[in-house]
């Protein structure tokens, strides 16, 4: 019924719902064009596009539509005396915003740039229009409000959308150019992480998320019922990535969900986030691993700069910020001097490492500093002054590991298989865990980790 629904443009017919994806005519397939390719090179050609109606404005005998595909949009003109009938203009004007339509039209070069669209040099003169899926007329939020910079809202009294409304209606909010860019860039971070570490000879591993012992201590772990007993949701892949090192995988990484039952209602804490984890055996000094991890971050920053300029600029229109700055090799400061420097002058760099934390503030599996047992061979990495990674050399001696676990009051019985992994020879190793949402947030200079989690989980939100 699709062809019927569309072929008749008469005003008596309301925009019909039609299930048509598989019923495209040969003609449609031949001329189908993606929005981003609608440029002057296509001038005077007849094309088909499938898109959402972003906005619609009827004026007398013509109707202007802005058609959107992801972050690309183009102006379309339905006009009596051009290519459309009077009924067709009326039909077009009645299509609700966000409906999905198929449109056939001629691409025309325009004299004056269309500033409000991404495709500024052309417009589409519409010949036929089909409604493929109509949106309900009342939208829970307006996309143009959802991309308005806060300052414009405050200074000019124009509407913006608050965070809860966005998150309650996340599917609509994710359609905005800003969200499309944020999650496009986030996908790029994972891709670059994978590419860089694979290039460095690491193996990508998968670790269990349902586990029998809390990897980071018992305080903030989710318990789940597990048949006749109970289990935990992994707070990190820590114990398992180390066991992979004991099993001779040498250099491993993984990307996966981690869970924290922390009642932290802050801009940087989620109860479920995506961990980017690394663990590597080393030969001489744990700084070999620190350098590899720092270089991985640098390769990610460089890749983002190179491949994601459009996304960075799109987000910057709504959330302006200074471009991300980093040095190569990365600035590394010792914890004690670093804190003093930060306090005094502030740090010019957006990305830096603090090394050698006090042993007391780190988890039981952290290697003490052999020169000064009050300190440890551990480090954090920071972006724009906020922590994005925690890491350390790990204890690889079963005896010392047992002592450290006991000192932290950990039930040895529960981590027996982990400790046993070190009894049959284990290479010195170090690693770290990175929070994907924090890296995305801080790279783009955003201010809330919920903006960079597609469907965020926090102490007060479990849906959508
Ligand atoms: P914080 O001190 O900020 O609470 P943490 O020291 O508990 O973090 P780790 O357990 O060391 O963090 O986790 C490693 C990384 O995982 C952090 O550097 C951060 O990027 C990310 N991360 C940790 N907890 C959260 C969280 N609740 N929500 C989002 N990301 C997190």
TrEMBL record:
Its EC number is 6.1.1.12. One of its GO terms (cellular component) is aminoacyl-tRNA synthetase multienzyme complex. It holds the Pfam family tRNA-synt_2. Residues 9-28 have a biased composition (Basic and acidic residues). It is found in: Cytoplasm. Residues 1-28 are annotated as: Disordered. GO terms for biological process: aspartyl-tRNA aminoacylation. It catalyses: tRNA(Asp) + L-aspartate + ATP = L-aspartyl-tRNA(Asp) + AMP + diphosphate. InterPro entries: Aa-tRNA-synt_II, aa-tRNA-synth_II, aa-tRNA-synth_II/BPL/LPL, Asp-tRNA_synthase_2, Asp/Asn-tRNA-synth_IIb, NA-bd_OB-fold, NA-bd_OB_tRNA. GO terms for molecular function: aspartate-tRNA ligase activity; ATP binding; RNA binding. Keywords: Aminoacyl-tRNA synthetase, ATP-binding, Cytoplasm, Ligase, Nucleotide-binding, Protein biosynthesis. Residues 185-464 form the Aminoacyl-transfer RNA synthetases class-II family profile domain. It is an enzyme of class 6 (ligase). Belongs to the class-II aminoacyl-tRNA synthetase family. Type 2 subfamily. Catalyzes the specific attachment of an amino acid to its cognate tRNA in a 2 step reaction: the amino acid (AA) is first activated by ATP to form AA-AMP and then transferred to the acceptor end of the tRNA. PANTHER family: ASPARTATE--TRNA LIGASE, CYTOPLASMIC, ASPARTYL-TRNA SYNTHETASE. Homodimer. Part of a multisubunit complex that groups tRNA ligases for Arg (RARS1), Asp (DARS1), Gln (QARS1), Ile (IARS1), Leu (LARS1), Lys (KARS1), Met (MARS1) the bifunctional ligase for Glu and Pro (EPRS1) and the auxiliary subunits AIMP1/p43, AIMP2/p38 and EEF1E1/p18. This is Aspartate--tRNA ligase, cytoplasmic. It comes from Leptobrachium leishanense.
